[in-house]
Amino acid sequence: MVRRRSFLLAVGTVALAQILTGCNSDEAAFRVLLLDNSIPSQLIGDFRSSISSKSIFTLESQLKTLLKLLQTWQAKDLSKPNKNSGLPFINKKPAPVPDLVTLGDSWLATAIEQKLISPLEGDLKWQQLPPRWQEIVRRDEQGMVSQQGKIWGAPYRWGTTMIAYRKDNLKKLGWEPKDWGDLWREDVRNRISLLDQPREVIGLTLKKLGYSYNSDNINQIPNLKSDLVALNKQAKFYSSDHYLEPLILGDTWLAVGWSHEIIPLLKNYRDIAAVVPQSGTALWADIWVKPAAVIKPSKFVQDWINFCWQSKSAKEISLFTDAVSPVILELAPENLPQAIRDNPLLLIDKNILEKSDFIKPLPASVEKQYENLWREIRVAISD
C-alpha cells in the first residue's frame, strides 16, 4: 500500500556509535531495529542508562527493507547455525532477531496476514495515546481494524500528507494553496507532482469532495472519476520517491508528499513552503512491532515502548525527528515547547486533524474498486 522512505541519518561520532550499538556480542541484549531519524540518539542514550541490561539499537533507512527483514526472519529456521561458505569448518549462529522493529502503519495488515509479527502484551500505558492511535493498531487476524482485535503495534510518531509549493512562482499568480481544491487551478496545469499511490491520490480527491480516504462504494460517488481525470491532466508526473527534486529545481510548483520528507526541506530552501490541507488529509504512523521470529522476547519490550510514551520522550521525538509523538496530542499546549506549539505542520490544527484519516485496509472488493479506478485513470492519461 502506501510506502514511505526516510533520509539517511548521519552518524559521525564514536560516542553516538556507542549509544546506538552497545555491545554486539551479548546475545542477551535488548535489541531494537529502528527507522533512521525516527528516534533521537539522546533518547536512546537515556534509555540505555536506565536499564540493567545491554541494548543494541540498529538503524535502517527504508521502511520497505524492514518489512523484507521480517519476511526473511519468518522464512528461516533461526535455531540452526549458518554454514560459512568461505570457512567450511566454522558454523556461525544466526544473529538474534530484534525484539522490536519499526514498521509503517500501512504495512501492518501485510505483516499480520503473513504472520510476521506477534501481538503486543504486558503493561503498556495506552492511556497516554489518543483513541485513534490506539484504534489503528487493534486488528483482527486478517489485519483489518477491529475493536475486538488484538494489539499488534505501538505508535510512537506520526505525520501527514501535505502540499509543498514554490512561494516565488505562486506569488506571481497571486495565491498560495490552502486546500486540495487548489490543485485543480488552471494556472498550475502541468506544474504538479503527485504521489504514485492510488489510495493517496484517490483519497485526496475524495477529501476535496467531502468524503473519507476510506470510503467504500466509490463507484457511486458523484464527480469522483471526472475530478480524477481533471487532476491527472494537471500533473506533470507521478513519483513516490523523487517528487521533491523537480520542486527544488522549479520544474514543478506544487508537490503532494509526506511531512517527514517535506519538513526538513523547508529548512534549506526558503522559496519552498508547505501546508496541511484544510479539508483534512491522510495520516501515517511509525509503530513498534514484535517479530514473530523472536525466540525469547526481552523483558524490556514494554519498558522501551512506555519510555517512548513518556511526556519528556514525546517532546524530544517531536522536536528532533520531523514528526510528532501521538502523546503530544494529550498534553496541554502550555506544556509543549514553543517550537512544537507554533509549528502548524507538526502540531496541526485540531479541526483539520478531526477531518483527517489514517489510510486503513479495506475489504478486497472495495480495494478492487480503487485499483480499477486507478487503472482506468492512468490508461486514460497515456492514451
Automatic annotation (TrEMBL):
It comes from the Bacteria. GO terms for biological process: polyamine transport. The keyword Phosphoprotein does not apply. It holds the Pfam family SBP_bac_6. The lineage of its organism: Bacteria, Bacillati, Cyanobacteriota, Cyanophyceae, Oscillatoriophycideae. It is found in: Periplasm. GO terms for molecular function: polyamine binding. Residues 1-17 form the signal peptide. This is Extracellular solute-binding protein family 1. GO terms for cellular component: periplasmic space. Its main location: periplasm. InterPro entries: Sperm_putr-bd (IPR001188). It comes from Gloeothece verrucosa (strain PCC 7822) (Cyanothece sp. (strain PCC 7822)). Keywords: Periplasm, Signal, Transport.
